[in-house]
Design goal:
238 residues, mainly alpha, two-stranded antiparallel ribbon
């Protein structure tokens, strides 16, 4: 259905509680896509959770890139001032401008940065290379599907046009590539000094940039420590 036809045939819109992402009443596809449209919020919540519990400098830098990406989106929207399609269809909008789509831009920033992190930063360290590559490829496909779903949901729900979603994706991908290489080449060499600051030590902020595969490292260290404690506990009970 053409965008003009959709606009000329107004629907009754319902919103998901608390989030106010609206979808046509009685439209199951729209209802599902409305939840996909909430994935950027889940990304932000995930970042805050990781920072609070991990306190790792690369994660903090990654989140800094997300904030930069959102700031660029705000500037672009207020410079271009392109209205959203079907103006007036939705009553709960934070801004009337739609170019570029912030949901699309944030999601593609996250996905592209994560791709680069998986394949360039997180090196394989054990002998199970095939398994290691398999889970990376599977995760990449899932992330790609997530980005495409969010982008499509914004068009289907009449929050954005295809061009607004497309240029949001282009902006997000571009900023992700630039920020990843800034992090790797400029910020990462500074991480050891930042981690040594008294305030960083007080808040237990750590630098894991020299560890090639942090998942494997944390797994082996935790398993080794658990075995040592179990051994000591067994000795005390004897």
């Amino acid at each position: 259905m053409a965008l003009e036809e959709q606009c000329s045939a107004p629907s009754r819109w319902r919103s998901i509680s608390l989030t106010h992402v609206e979808f046509p009443e009685g439209d199951l596809t729209g209802h599902v896509l409305a939840y996909f449209s909430l994935l950027p919020i889940a990304i932000l919540v995930g970042f805050v959770t990781l920072i609070v519990f991990k306190r790792e400098l690369h994660t903090i830098s990654f989140f800094g890139g997300v904030i930069l990406n959102e700031a660029v989106n705000w500037v672009l929207k207020h410079l271009l001032r392109e209205p959203r399609p079907c103006a007036g269809s939705h009553t709960t909008l934070h801004t009337e401008y739609g170019m570029p789509s912030s949901h699309s831009q944030l999601t593609w920033f996250f996905v592209v940065y994560f791709f680069l992190f998986l394949y360039l930063r997180m090196h394989q360290t054990n002998n199970a290379r095939c398994v290691d590559l398999l889970w990376r490829h599977v995760l990449s496909i899932i992330l790609l599907g997530m980005a495409l779903s969010v982008s499509y949901s914004r068009v289907y729900l009449l929050y954005h046009s295809w061009s607004q979603v497309f240029y949001g994706a282009v902006a997000g991908c571009t900023i992700a590539i630039l920020w990843f290489f800034i992090t790797q080449e400029v910020l990462t060499p500074l991480f050891p000094k930042i981690a040594a600051w008294p305030i960083s030590e007080y808040f237990l902020v750590r630098d894991t940039s020299l560890i090639p595969n942090i998942l494997w490292f944390e797994y082996t260290v935790t398993r080794s420590e658990a075995r040592n404690r179990q051994r000591k506990l067994g000795t005390k009970l004897q």
